[in-house]
Records
---
Amino acid sequence: MAWLAARSAPSVNDLMMSRLDRSTSLDPPPEKTIFRIDLNEDRPIPSATASTYAPSEAGDLAMPSVLFPSMRLMLAAMLCCCFITLSISSSNLAVALICMTSCPHHGYGGDLKWKTEQEGLVLAAQNAGSLLTLVTGMWADRLNGKWMVFVALLLCCVGNLVLPLFAADSFWFAVAARIAIGASDACLMPACNSLITRWFPQSERAAAIGLISGGRQIGTLFILPTAGYLCTRKDILDGWPAIFYLSACISILVTVFWIPFGADKPAKQCCISGRERNFIESRIACESIGKRTDRSRRVPYQAMLRSRALWASMFALVCHEYPLVIMLQFLPNYMRDVLEFAPTKNGLIAALPILCLFVSKTVSSSFSSYLVTKRNMDKTVVCKAFNAIASGGLAMCIFIVPLFDKTRAVYAVVSLCGAMIFAGMHTPGVITALVQLAPPFSGIITGWSFFAVAWFSIGNKILTKHIVQQGAASEWSMVFRVSALVAALPVFVFTWWGSADRQLWAAPSSKASVCSFSTYKKSRSSAGTCSQADVRYSFIISNSRLMCEEWKTIALNPLPSKKTFQSGLMYTVSDNRLLFPQKGLGTGSLAME
């Protein structure tokens, strides 16, 4: 839905004739034209007085936000910090486990005498907690997103404190702590996607997703080398426990900033300007996302279950996340076992592929938004192209990693970095497509998708720990080959059945239409020459509200009696008609049918 900006500001005496046309809407058009313009009606022309005109600078429309130039950017930055916190809490165990547990095969000594199967359970416990996305996703579009994010941050803090305090007593405390981290992910991801649909227009969502989800890589980039360093410093809180205490402190810090500045929607943000708030609300009005408290709209479960586009996107997401579990959770173990890196070096080099992932997803998401908005490319074509390149390149790079041993460790690291560069292109691919399929039900779709991801991640971690018993190169080779096969599947499935277009079962629950009002004016210059200009105004009717060009919303029930556009064009409401003065032609009226 596009905001209207007049190319010039005609006065009443300049208006010669008017017409109203219906243009293309973002959603399926209504069955009949909602508004029409009638000319030469026998109606009195409202008298024009000084009070009926508003200057172009009226109101707070041009006032910037007090604390931030764009509240959308600030919200994206805060959500990015939330994902940094979650990523730190999720990835800290990957390095800490090396110095927590003893590994007699490679000379690593630790305080905890856990078996390989127990390590696998601790690692898989996080994904067990992520299974709650099935529940949180069902309620993400109805509960307040701000407080769902707060609960996620609180669970991160609790999980990071429990593990170092009680893990020595029983590994089941470590399992419970990691379940809390997984539950945090289950709260944050659906809430974040729901917030994105309420804060960002369609054209900005790919870039917003890239920025927000980039927090996962920033957090990993920070914690991997930091954890590797703390592992070697027994004088700092006994080494590995300091990793989790640091993670808890970061969770508390982000929570302190989120509570006052986070908001469920623009209307609840205390620092947002009226201009930006109405800009956001008008852009998403035709998507008919609705209020969270609205219970009248039923969720089309049957249509969702029959949607090939939804199933293709979910399948592609599972295939995308499957190899990333190896790359994010087991990469330090692989570098320890096969490439034989020391803990500090391990943490530093393991961060390189994560850096490549962050850069790739940020650049590719911005480029995707550029192609859609500036080059007018079809968003489904763009999503499929990025996703096909990502899946094919990821599979190829993962497949060649086992070809290099410790004597050619540089080539192995380069291959891993290449895999992450391609993996980042999934962000403007299937991840963006999932948000675009059904904005009113983004929380439910996110819950279903990441519930499936959690199940396969649990199986992936248990299977990997079952295969890798001695840390031999042949064992890791099998792990990477299986991951490469899974990564290649979306090249065919998503390219054939995937889509980034809004589905019919997610159509607006109320009529919405975009109309334009054109006027012609004549002006005479000082030299005596005449010129004629076409001035075009747009009206968007959605949910019984008229969005007009002065960045304000007019309720149609009850109708206001008199209103003035910011440009100075006056109209009066009478008998459910918007009356426009027409010089020499009577009064043009905009009437609802």
Note: The radius of gyration is 28 Å.
---
Amino acid sequence: MGDGSLVSGAEIARLAGVERSAVSNWRRRHRDFPAPAGGSSVKPLFALAEVETWLRDRGKLRAIPATDRLWQRLRSYGDDRRLVDTLADVAVLLAFVGDTRSAWEDLAVLPDEELAERLPEAVASFVTQGRIPGGSPFADGLRPDQVPTWRLLVEMAREGIPEQIFEDLHSRYVDSTDRAIVVTPLDLATVIAAMVPPVLDGAVFDPSCGTGNLLQALGKKLGIGGSRAGQERDPAVARIAWYRIQWCGVGPEIIRQGDSLRNDQFAGTPGGPDGAAVVVCDPPTGDREWGHDELGYDARWEFGLPPRAEPELAWLQHCYAHIRPGGIAIVAMPIAAAARRSGRRIRGEMLRRGALREVIALPPGLAGGHSLGLHLWVLIRPSTGYIDDDGEISGAIGPATCVRMIDGSRFDRERVREIEGDWWHQYEDEPGVSAKVPVIELLDDDVDLTPARYVQRDEDDLVRAHEEAVNELTPVLGCLSKQQPPRMSRADVPADWPMVSLSELVKAQALDVILNRELPRMRIDLEVGDILVPVLDPSERPVVVRKESTLGLDGPTPDRHLIRCDQTVLDPDFVAGFLHSEQNVRQAVTGTGTFRFDPRRAMIPRLPLAEQRRYGAEFRKLAEFADLLQRTVRVGQDVVRLAQDGLTSGAFVPAPHQEPKGM
């Protein structure tokens, strides 16, 4: 390319279609492998042009997807700080082209030198007229040699889906190890969104929205209900959030730029009727320069002025100030905030006012900025209610007299996903997981809100739970022992099928593909034969909905795409099986190693329906065997965990020692 683009070892592996370990081997074995041109000794970067030449000379270079090439060009513009600005420029240019197509067409015919001068001016005018957050675009100007990159972007947007292209670029930036901003992980955003009750009116607000992951997740959860608003301190990040939530929602979407604590762009009377119905927040942690000195008499501190060393309690009260009576705030908090002595007074006042309803401990690894795990604090503002049409008081919510403590710190990924289905009915009274603690018991000298301190499993409950797990595992092991491992017959000649993409099948009306981001705008019930395709987890197989299905789903979930086949032409099991082929999974991995599956790009064989059904029957058997194995592992882990807890708590004693037979 000759444009100075750099690539990592993972991206070289993608170019060649190999594992990362192969690239490491090439570096050791081949002295002529390109030397690092940047990065560090731990994470070196290589000149893309040199890598392409080296791979091409050895016949290892695959065709480079346009998105990969675009990403490398954008990344060559400067350091990581500049990269987020460039991504914000991508967002606003895509919006400009989409909203003012004729204006772009007039500019596109200009030579690169003239376009480099006039495009920033035209986009800046678009930003001003649209009151788009983020300051002036192309702040460093646009050089003529950079113009081809932006022409490529527009060309790709016209041939594909602009929002999907941006999501791909955004995911690559988020997965960049040296990025300068913290982004709420999708897993955490999905869990928080699952906890939000239906919003029939009023706004959903995130005062520290970052690039918009939480607001996106809420859009998928709420669909047509409620509008969304957010504030973000970083101008470029605010613009990215603005673009991302514009196309995934249907109500009014407002993003404003500014420091939420020092310069609240949505300021109002704390707890007023015009407040938000829901506030969600994954606030920055450990920032002692949050404004303690200048905000000493702020009306938002209903529970008291937060100490300088407790910025998270400042954010918590900021969120609480923005909810209306009866509104709910869900805030991600570091574990230490539940017990630090410096925050004891504020925690106590929050309890006395009956604002805190739940504290949920989540497992480590769910949030990038909380390596030791984190808590979710759920607050609801008490409400006197209103007089309904019958003259009765309705919607009254009194101060909390108990706080529900939920200890999910040991949940595995599958258990966390259970939360996504039906949060308010989960863990209502599960020994060892949840407990309702009277407020008076929490108001001791420590005012410690750590769930593990209050969630304890009674010995009888532990014994009973272990016995139930063993009773569940026994028949599962029996089923597994009767199953024969799948055995396949080797083909005499490797099959060489004609292939067809799902996008072509969509055009032929043989199937419909409904992407997960389109689902909030639609009301769809699942039908037998529908295929649910995971968006972000390559280890998950696509699931075919069956009449006897125990999925317990009324409709598609936000983390899955929906494929609906014309079953007179396509066999759903056949399609699902080939969607999970190694080739299709590999093409879904971005240049930074992230799995983001777009099923429209997937390829499947073009076979007669009868032959499809033969393959589909085999794929179904494999899926059933995999489900049995997974159930065995899950229940077996419960047996082991409960036995471990019993032995370490004194509820169990080691079994009597028995000498092996024949000794």
Note: The longest helix spans residues 609-649.
---
Amino acid sequence: MSNQARSRWLDKLQPLKGRLLQRYSADRIEDAVRWRLGKFYYSAVREVDLLISINAAGIPLKYHLVADVLLRVDYWVDQNWVHRES
């Protein structure tokens, strides 16, 4: 990790890390982080699988991370956006 990334992300987490360690064991915190990362990874794999399956069926479904994050658009076909209610 670069120094720029460290100062932007990890250094800002130090106060939180200290508070968490006062309440929970390091093992429990590590397990929770692994669980969240695992859920994120599994969700991403499912979305990629869906996109590939639909494209294989001949539907030109598109995806882009910026559209997902900024516009909350999961996918689109031509000018039609697909998004789920949360």
Note: Residues 35 and 41 are 10 Å apart (CA to CA).
---
Amino acid sequence: MLLATALLLLAPAAAEQPAAAPTPAPAEKLICKKSLETGSLVKARKTCLTAKQWRLAQESASNTALRMQSENSRLEGTN
């Protein structure tokens, strides 16, 4: 009887489930874009990035283009 009472007292503690871990913040939504591959009219490449990654890629491309233009303008007068 003492054993049965001890089991009844311990059962609620064993039945308690551990607290669920907090769910992580959802990942940023991916934005997928298709672009034609150079030299092909039908072959496309799909690229998926977050909005922040697309913005950084655009800024990098713009900076590269500006740098190439400024370097080219300096070299034009040296022929």
Note: The radius of gyration is 31 Å.
